[in-house]
Specification:
Number of strands of chain A: 5
Helix content of chain A: 10-25%
Shape of chain A: globular
Order of helices and strands of chain A: EEEHEEH
Oligomer: homodimer
Radius of gyration of chain A: 15 Å
Largest sheet of chain A: 5 strands, antiparallel
Number of helices of chain A: 2
Chain lengths: ~150, ~150
């Protein structure tokens, strides 16, 4: 059930990349971090361990398909994954391509800024969507058997 | 194969909570964050998507069993999960119980400190180990079918 005032229950101005009946992948508009994606569970759930096992597996399969697609398209030095929800306690994952010369490396992007950076280009939305779809198969209901 | 000079390949002074043939859960010594655990894949692998699907599922089942055990024992306001590896590119997950009055809330623990804090007690190591074992079943080889 949607939670009143939760910005992830009633999304506005999201740049949608991919979705199925359970979750969606959006592009995060951060000029320092092209390719930064967020994977958001549609229902208002707070923690991963609030989900049944098959839904946990499905959500992680989408997170890791996004990771694989970003690695293939952007060749980052590292991928960072995080699920916090301290400010918005609605289950979502950050998937962030990182480079040694980016603004915060080797700190997390929530740490102290290390330098000015000259970020590259994010992949085209349609190309990223195509890769995620190819890795996951067609969007559909979670089966728990998605091959990552 | 262990990587030369990787501190997670050749662990020293770790406080081990639980392990099986694939990964281990250790207690992180951070006075601001009692209960902070790290789940470390034994082999020197960099990214989640470097693992086969069943091993990804097994690692996440251990991460989420740790989450469930910490929630049951510590009743945190939120759990934070993160896998960065920017400084040590050997696959590991941070599992952090968070409280509204902790040192950084609602920021990540890698963000700006918000206040002095008076952290509570970490659970006894043996009790946490017992909970993780109970949730996962007996330690053993990854099966991909572990119920979280």
């Amino acid at each position: 059930m949607p939670a009143a005032s939760c910005p992830l229950c009633t999304p506005q101005d999201e740049t949608l990349i991919w979705q199925d009946e359970s979750c969606r992948v959006i592009q995060v508009d951060d000029p320092d971090y092209p390719g930064f994606c967020r994977v958001i569970w549609h229902d208002h759930v707070t923690e991963m361990s609030d989900l049944p096992s098959l839904e946990q597996q499905h959500l992680m399969s989408v997170v890791l398909a996004t990771e694989r697609a970003l690695r293939a398209l952007m060749k980052p030095d590292k991928i960072n994954l995080a699920s916090f929800g301290n400010q918005v306690p609605h289950l979502h994952w950050h998937v962030i391509p990182r480079y040694r010369e980016d603004a915060h490396f080797p700190e997390s992007i929530w740490g102290r800024r290390q330098r000015e950076s000259s970020p590259g280009q994010a992949p085209e939305r349609e190309i990223l969507a195509h890769w995620i779809t190819s890795i996951l198969g067609h969007p559909g209901k979670p089966t728990g058997g998605t091959v990552v």
